[in-house]
Amino acid sequence: MVRMTAIMICAVLAGCQAVPGEGPLTADIKKDAGQSPTQIGRIDAAVFDIVNVDNRTAKLVSDYVATALNRRFGFGGGAGRAVIGVGDQLKISIFEAGADGLFSTTESKQTSLDVVVQQDGTAAIPYVGSIRFAGKTLEEARQEILSSLRSRAVEPDVIVSSVNTASRKVTVSGAVGSSAQVPLGLVGEKITDVIAKAGGPSGQPYETYVTLVRGKKTGTALLSSVIDNPSENIYVQPGDQIFVARDPRTFTLLGAVRANARINFGASDLNLLEAVALGGGGNDAAVDAKGYFLFRYEEADIVMSLLGRQRFNELLSKGMKPDRLGRYPIVYSFDMTHPDSLLVGQTFPVKNRDVIYASRHTSVDLRKFLALIGAPIGIASQGAGVAYNLERISD
C-alpha cells in the first residue's frame, strides 16, 4: 500500500500539469511575478509583480485611495485668487461729495455703470477711458478707477461689484440633475458646491464617480470619498470640467471559494475580508490559506511607493505596460494562516473591478489525479495527506 502511494505521488509530481484546475496555483503566480515574457515562455504574457500585504502596505494603499484628487492635483486647500476675466459683467457705482460733479446731480450723488470686459481685457469708463480689468481683483479694479477719478471728480469713491462671471465657469455634466455651466463665486467653490448647483448627483454617493479635468490633468474619485475626506473636496478653478458618472462598483471573486461571481459592493467602502465573505468565503476543502491574491491595475504613484523606483524601472524594462489610464498591474498577496491577516484584511480597501482569487491547495490536484487514474479511495486519501504534509514541511 505504501509503495503504491509513493508511486502515485511521484506520478503526480511528474505530471500534475495534466490535471484540470480552476486557475493557477500559489507557486505558479509567485513564479511568474517579476518575469519578462521571454522568461515566462509566452511573448504576449503580462509583466506584473507581487506585493505581500502587511500593515504598512495596507495603510499606504488605503491612504492613497482616500486622497486621489488631492494627490493628482497637488493641492486641497485654498480657493486661489479670484480675478476678473474676459466677458465678465461688472457694476461700477461712482459717488461724489459735490452736487455738480461729473457723476452727480442735485438729485443724486452717485451714478451706476454696467460694463462688460472686452476681448482685450479692458472696459471703458466715462471721463476716464479704457481701464484694464482682466487679471485684477475687484478691489484692484476699484483702486485703479478711483485713482483715475481723483483729479476729475469731487471727492470720488467707487464700488465695483460682479454681476455675471462669464470667465469663471465650470462645466458639470453626466449623472446630475441638470448638466450646466456653473458660474463660480468670488469666494471660491468646491467640487460638491458646483455639483449641487447642477442639481446634485442622480445616484448614491458610494456608486458615483467624479472626474475632474483641468488642462492636461485628469483625476477620478468616488463621490463618497470626496464627502468623507475634506481634503478631497478641493476648490475648483475657472475652466474646469467635472463629469459625474453613476457606476455601481463590483469586484470578481474566483478560485477555491464557495461561489465564483461578480459581486456588487452595496456599500460606501469594502475591505478584503468583507469581499471574500460576500462570496461565501473560501472552500475549506480546497483553498490554500496562503494563496489569497488581489489582482489590480494600480496607480503609478502607489506602485513606485511599494516597489521602489529601481524595481519599478526594472519591471518597465522587462515589458510591464500600463492600461489606458496609466495604471500598472500589481498582485497583492495575503497569507491567511497568520492571525494578523484578519487585522490587515480589515484595512486593505477593495476597489472597483478588482479580481480576488483564492488559489486551490496542491493536495486538490493530487486527489484529482488519483481519481482520474482510478486509484482506490484509501490510497487517494493517503496520498493527498502525504502531499499536504510535504508541502507544510517545505514551507
Task: Write a short abstract of this structure.
This protein is an alpha+beta fold and 395 residues long.
Describe this structure in words.
With 395 residues, this protein is α+β, with helices and mostly antiparallel strands. It has three domains: 2-67 and 249-394, Outer membrane lipoprotein wza fold like, CATH 3.10.560; 70-80 and 168-244, Outer membrane lipoprotein wza fold like (Roll), CATH 3.10.560; 89-164, wza like domain (wza like fold, 2-Layer Sandwich), CATH 3.30.1950. Helices cover 33% and strands 25% of the residues. It has a six-stranded mixed sheet, sandwiched between helices. It has a five-stranded mixed sheet with strand order 8-7-11-9-10. Helix 1 (2-15) crosses helix 14, helix 4 (55-66) runs parallel beside helix 12 (341-347) and helix 10 (300-307) packs across helix 11. The radius of gyration is 33 Å and the shape is elongated. The model has no long low-confidence stretch (mean pLDDT 84).
Instruction: Give the N-to-C terminal Cα separation.
Output: 27 Å
Total DSSP E strands = 16
Number of helices: 14
Structural class: alpha+beta
Largest sheet: 6 strands, mixed
Low-confidence stretches: none
CATH architecture title of the largest domain: Roll
Calculate Rg over CA atoms: 33 Å
Read across the widest sheet, the strand sequence of neighbours is: 1-15-14-16-12-13
Query: What is the overall pLDDT average?
Result: 84
Overall geometry comes to: elongated
* Overall CATH class of the largest domain: Alpha Beta
Percent helix among the residues?
25-40%
The CATH superfamily title of the largest domain: Outer membrane lipoprotein wza domain like
* Beta-strand fraction estimate: 15-25%
CATH topology of the largest domain: Outer membrane lipoprotein wza fold like
SSE sequence, one letter per element? HHHEHHEEEEHEEEHEEHEEEHEHHEHEHH
Whole-number tally of structural domains: 3
